[in-house]
């Protein structure tokens, strides 16, 4: 049995991260023209980092995809690793993002949130509202209270400001199971925020959420982890451009039969590849990561405070 995190005294002995991402989370867009991968980390590496972080149950919740979670689960079973992997998905509904965990099949995007919850429950899964008051992710906000969900993420590790997590805890404690998730897009972020529960297995976590016997714990990811993540993305894209065949083999080295999640990089035109490569080198070779991180943290704190005032004055 692995040692559990001991930062605070608690009645719960199990640790779960209910919200994490891999390279199967697809691409985001910046300034309407710049696409970048949400993560360049393979499912296997995320599982390995979760074990090192003393996590008992890891929910892989890629954006609108479950292949990364399936691959992680197979990896853990084949290698008989001391961790339970739960198949999940962060689903883009027509109303905001929603986590489905303990899934069997991928759930389509852009359905109404009520329909999405119904499909999750039909699969025997659990519906969790992530970052309900986020200002940079599509969130469900006040609608959360009226939805037939199983839990609310009141501690999201990706929100570095001290406001939106506090809002979620203040407004939703007692209504649903309160959980914490790292929202990790990089191994560095894994396990920063997590959920405590009684037991050590995925079944124990399922039961704990149903019975509202969970406790969010940990903290938001610090600035240095955000800086590392941006550099990891830049290096991952540059490495893919320089050695496309090598990276394809790396992504698929453990389990065959899965689509290559970073193939979009290979399909760029030669001109686009040159621009992307130069951009990556410029970003990694200058103070830009730190500068962007500092500006980003300030922006998050300002928007978090704005959201706090907006909600608490209603």
In short:
This protein has 314 residues and is an alpha/beta fold.
Write out key terms for the chains shown.
314 residues; TIM Barrel; 2 domains; nine-stranded mixed β-sheet; 11 strands
Write the layout of secondary structure elements.
Elements: E1 14-20, E2 27-30, E3 34-37, H1 43-52, E4 57-60, H2 67-78, E5 84-92, E6 97-101, H3 113-122, E7 126-129, E8 151-156, H4 164-172, E9 177-181, E10 193-197, H5 202-210, E11 214-218, H6 223-242, H7 244-251, H8 263-266, H9 270-284, H10 288-312
Parallel strand pairs: 1-4, 4-5, 7-8, 8-9
Antiparallel strand pairs: 1-10, 2-3, 5-6, 6-7, 10-11
Helix pairs in contact: 1-2, 6-7, 6-9, 6-10
Plain-language structure description:
With 314 residues, this protein is of the alpha/beta class. It folds into 2 domains: 209 residues, Metal-dependent hydrolases (TIM Barrel); 88 residues, no CATH class. Helices cover 39% and strands 18% of the residues. The protein has 10 helices and 11 strands. The strands form 2 sheets. A 9-stranded mixed β-sheet has the order 9-8-7-6-5-4-1-10-11, sandwiched between helices. Strand 2 and strand 3 form a beta hairpin. Helix 1 crosses helix 2 and helix 6 packs antiparallel against helix 9. The radius of gyration is 19 Å and the shape is globular. The protein starts with 13 loop residues before the first strand and ends with a helix.
């Amino acid at each position: 049995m692995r040692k559990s995190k001991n930062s605070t005294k608690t009645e719960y002995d199990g640790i779960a991260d209910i919200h994490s991402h891999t390279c199967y989370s697809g691409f985001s867009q910046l300034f309407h023209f710049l696409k970048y991968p949400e993560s360049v980390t393979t499912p296997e590496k995320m599982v390995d980092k979760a074990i090192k972080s003393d996590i008992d149950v890891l929910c892989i919740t890629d954006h609108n995809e479950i292949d990364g979670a399936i691959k992680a689960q197979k990896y853990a079973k084949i290698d008989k690793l001391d961790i339970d992997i739960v198949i999940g998905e962060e689903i883009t509904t027509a109303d905001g993002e929603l986590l489905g965990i303990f899934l069997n099949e991928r759930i389509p995007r852009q359905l109404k949130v009520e329909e999405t919850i119904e499909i999750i429950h039909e699969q025997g899964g659990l519906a969790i509202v992530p970052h309900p008051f986020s200002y940079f992710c599509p969130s469900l906000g006040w609608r959360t209270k009226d939805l037939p969900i199983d839990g609310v993420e009141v501690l999201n590790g990706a929100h570095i400001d001290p406001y939106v997590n506090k809002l979620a805890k203040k407004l939703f404690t007692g209504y649903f199971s309160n959980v914490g998730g790292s929202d990790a897009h990089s191994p560095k972020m894994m396990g920063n925020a997590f959920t405590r529960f009684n037991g050590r297995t995925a079944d124990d976590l399922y039961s704990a959420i149903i019975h509202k016997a969970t406790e969010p714990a940990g903290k938001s990811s610090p600035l240095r982890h955000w800086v590392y993540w941006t550099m990891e993305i830049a290096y991952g894209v540059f490495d893919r451009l320089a050695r496309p065949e090598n990276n394809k083999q790396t992504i698929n080295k453990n389990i065959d039969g899965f689509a290559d999640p970073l193939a979009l990089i290979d399909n760029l035109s030669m001109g686009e590849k040159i621009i992307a490569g130069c951009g990556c080198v410029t970003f990694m070779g200058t103070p830009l990561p730190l500068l962007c991180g500092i500006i980003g943290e300030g922006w998050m704190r300002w928007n978090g405070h704005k959201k706090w005032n907006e909600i608490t004055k209603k």
